[in-house]
Amino acid sequence: MVWIEDRIEWQVDGKSVTIGVTRFGTGPCLLLLPAFSSISTREEMRPLQELLGQSFSTLAIDWPGFGDLPRPTVNWRPDLYRAFLRFVLADVVRPDVTVAAGHAASYALTEAAEHPASLGRLVLLSPTWRGPLPTMMKRRLKAFGAVAKAVDLPLAGAALYRLNVNGLVIGMMARAHVYSNPDWLTPERMATKRLVTEAVGARHASFRFVAGELDLLSDQQAFLEAGRRAGSDIRVLYGREAPPKSKAEMLALAELPNVKRVELPRGKLSFYEEFPDDAAAAIAAS
Fold this sequence. Notes:
This protein starts with a strand and ends with a helix. α1 crosses α13, α3 packs across α10 (220-229) and α5 runs antiparallel to α9. It has 13 helices and 8 strands. By secondary structure, it is α/β, with parallel strands linked by helices. The protein has an 8-stranded mixed beta sheet with strand order 1-2-4-3-5-6-7-8, with helices on both faces. β3 (29-33), α1 and β4 form a beta-alpha-beta unit.
């Protein structure tokens, strides 16, 4: 089996976006949707993809506005991401299984609720519906949106973005919420993550996510309602050490009668990146 690195073009607001795609393996089709975050790309799925590729024909794809390629200046918003997911499902892959991490889970649930079976069997990794700032403040403030738009400004916006993605902040957030082992984010891995934040146009979608401007769902009730309507074959996987506020949302979703949950013995939000063997075994068993 060989790794195939590919690129696709997608039109948004009159602009063309180049999006990275990685294919690996043989068997039924499995779509991997990475989390939304300043340091997330399809590459975070690679260790998991390598394991799942022994049984599936896997495809990992970046979200527009994220990834490691240059990105145009766009007013990134939830309706664009819904349109992109529909484009992927119509023109790129028709999955038998969809694995969606973090914020991608709310988009996958919503699409499955409106178009049953369009994503196949759903496996949600550390599913979330609310961005970091609203989660931290326990509410959405109008100021968040204003700050997100300020990041679009040529000079001041770039400086504001840098405050959010410097090495100190990334390391602090990673240790607190993302990885269990504080030494996992080695200097080499940190350098790779920093390169993602430095891609041309990276700040526009990244800061909107942080501010909650890419939240598709308005509250927990909408999150749970999407889960109720998304079909009967849903799995929620999360790490035992997941941050309490995020874990509470995952457990609420997992309480639905059509959802089965799997708590992994170790890991925080990105348990599937840090402990891909655990995650792959859980996905295969589900």
